[in-house]
Amino acid sequence: MDGNQIQFILSHDPVTAPFFRGVYASDTIPILKKKSTIVVNLDASSQPGSHWLAFCHENNCIEFFDSYGYPPEYYGEGFRDFVSKFSAVSWNCIPFQSPTFNVCGAYCIYFNFK
């Protein structure tokens, strides 16, 4: 699933559209100031894309979703620095998919409906 498909689904659904702020590469993650959700690709904008992750921000708390079940720090300094700006960070620790499957985008969409 590519970023355009994720963007279309989440920005057009009446449940997710009010809070969905977009799809980003790992080097273009925006500052989140109000209740919002974003989907982020692990790759930088100069790369083709590899794995989708999702964030939900509310009341200066951030929830991180990774279908592999890893914490944000697993993905490096940029993600660690991003989540450190919030007063509380939570994430799922149970994997939803194997690294051999390519369904992370669909799981990020599902996360936005919770």
How confident is the prediction overall: mean pLDDT? 96
- Most strands sheet: 5 strands, mixed
The helicity comes to: 10-25%
Q: How much β-strand is present in the residues?
A: 25-35%
Give the CA-based shape. globular
What are the secondary-structure elements, in order, as H or E? HEEEEHEH
Query: Structural class of the helix and strand makeup?
Result: alpha/beta
Oligomer: single chain
Instruction: Report the end-to-end length measured between terminal Cα atoms.
Output: 20 Å
Rg estimate, integer Å: 13 Å
How many helix segments? 3
In total, the number of strands is 5
Report the uncertain regions. none
User: Major sheet: order of its strands?
Assistant: 1-2-3-4-5
InterPro entries: Papain-like_cys_pep_sf
Quick tags:
3 helices, 25% strand, globular
Characterization of the model:
InterPro entries: Papain-like_cys_pep_sf. This protein has 114 residues and is α/β, with parallel strands linked by helices. The protein contains three helices and five strands, in the order H-E-E-E-E-H-E-H. The protein has helices spanning 3-12, 77-83, 104-112, and strands at residues 20-25, 36-41, 52-58, 61-66, 88-91. A five-stranded mixed beta sheet has the order 1-2-3-4-5, covered by helices on one side. The protein starts with a helix and ends with a helix. The model has no long low-confidence stretch (mean pLDDT 96).
